[in-house]
Amino acid sequence: MMKKLKMKRMTKIAGNYAGNAALCAILIMIMLLAIGTAALVVTGRTSINENQNMPANGVVSFADESSAVDQQEPVQEEPKALMEYPEKDYEFQKISFDGLTAKYGVLLDCENNKIYAGKNYKKKAYPASLTKLMTVIIALENCDDISDTYKFTKSDIKSLSDANASVAGFSAGEKVTVEDLLYGAMLPSGADATLGLANYVAGSEKEFVKLMNAKVKELGLTGTHFSNASGLHDDDHYSTVLDMAMIVEYALNNDKISDEFIKIISAKDYTTYKSNKHEAGIPLSSIFMSRYDGFYIDRDEDGKEDADIIGGKTGFTDESGYSLASVYKIEDTYYVCVTMKSTTAETATSDNLTIAERYLPVYDLLGDDSSSSSESSAESSSTVDVTPAPIDQTESDQNTSTVPDSSAADSIPNDEVPM
User: Is 61 labeled as catalytic in the residue annotation?
Assistant: First the structure.
């Protein structure tokens, strides 16, 4: 009896050992599986299904390989730039003459995309209010009807006052047309006008600047970046005289906006539509045209004007000095001359004009003893304003919208600065 009980006890113990061993084995397997899974998670490796995406027969033919490639998403190539950087004309000359104050300069043939003359034309500089050339281009391309309106807010006007920016004279609560804003940006160089255009087109200046830089990329320009729509100084707001000339070239050769663009840059004056704030509208005068009053281009030194002054844009900040972009025309060809960092408003004009006189081609004058008369030339440039206008003051840290530069204080009265 005792022997049987002992045997049963031994059998039970053995069974317990066997059960425990099986349980341990199962636990060990679970632990190994968990450790393996954790290792895969940590290392980022997953198991590979070798048959995944394989044909049923397990053989990949060349046709299968090509079809697999075709099914992949195509590589997105960068779109081709709208413009190509111009080459030097065979008569290219380095801009150099006594009395030149501009640190940067270029003369560009817009029909043949050739550079006739240049000085530091690929080096970056601050463009100041030449920026507004791009602002007007973006606005024209993104507005179907320039009779549409924008209403200025108190915050709009306050932001301009805080920045000491030059203005065309629009008021908080005033509803103005896009056309008014275009002329307000170009003629008196109003930052209020550029802000209105930015808000109208993109909802904010920040979003509008994105459009400006997208256009820079679209054109293929590599030396330009904009931080605002007016040209107020910013270390990250820069361009080159060549890039700015190409921006103008783009507008002149763009069939969709060229007529309106030329109309705006060549205007000597403009009066805005009447509004709830200005019953008679705001009279605007072109700073550019006032600078060119009395000047003409005499390429062959015969005392007669033989190139048309179409229009352009001025610019100034303390950091940039005086900038000037001018559009000239000989027969049916437009030429753009851009200078930056001249010492005064007067020297900026003389720098630009002298470059045009010295380096514009004269092929049309060779063998021609009867140059166009000064009377007919005057008619072609009849848009030049005879009324002095304020110096372009896109400011940095001084309120120059009410105090013109001392270098021109004698010829430009303070009371003609737009308020």
Answer: no
Residue 293 in 3-state DSSP?
A: coil
**Catalytic site residue from 114, 119, 171, 189:** 189
Regions of the chain where pLDDT drops below 70? 1-76, 367-419
The single residue of 114, 119, 132, 329 carrying the catalytic annotation is 132
Q: Report pLDDT digits (tens) over 396-411.
A: 333 333 323 333 322 3
Cβ count within 10 A of residue 358: 15
The model scores a pTM over 0.90: no
- Give CA 131 to chain center in angstroms: 7
> Which one is catalytic: 129, 171, 227, 239?
129
Q: Is 46 exposed, middle or buried (0-12, 13-18, 19+ CB in 10 A)?
A: exposed
pLDDT (0 to 100) of residue 161: 85
| Catalytic residue flag (residue 189) | yes
> What 3-state DSSP class applies to 135?
helix
CA pair distance 222, 239, nearest whole angstrom = 9
